[in-house]
Amino acid sequence: MKTVRFGILALALATSLSLSAAAQDASQDMKKAGSETKSAAKDTGHGIKKGTTKAYDKTKDGTEKAYDKTKEGTEKAADKTAEGTKKAYHKTADGTKKAADKVTGK
Fold first, then answer.
1. What is the pLDDT of residues 76-94, one digit of tens each?
2. C-alpha to C-alpha distances, 40 to 30, 33, 34, 43, 53, nearest whole angstrom
3. S-S: 106 plus which of 2, 44, 84, 101, CB 3.0-4.6 Å?
4. What's the pTM?
5. CA 98 to chain centre
């Protein structure tokens, strides 16, 4: 009978040791999976930051170019408007002088 009890005790001890080892393996696997997930999240964050920074820089460059072109176009339009105004002024002045000369008989 002692032999049977010893056998049962030995079997129970072996089972508990293997379950304990399995539990440690599962715990280590979970820690490893957590570390891998953390690493993947960091990599993803770095990729997003890089893409966002690149998009920001491109947008900034495009905005500056658009500003410069708009400024250049506005300056050209202002110059053309000034030229047109001067021409209109001179034509009006000449027309007024001719009309005045006709009235005075010159």
1. 999 999 999 999 998 898 8
2. 15, 10, 10, 5, 20
3. 101
4. 0.49
5. 66
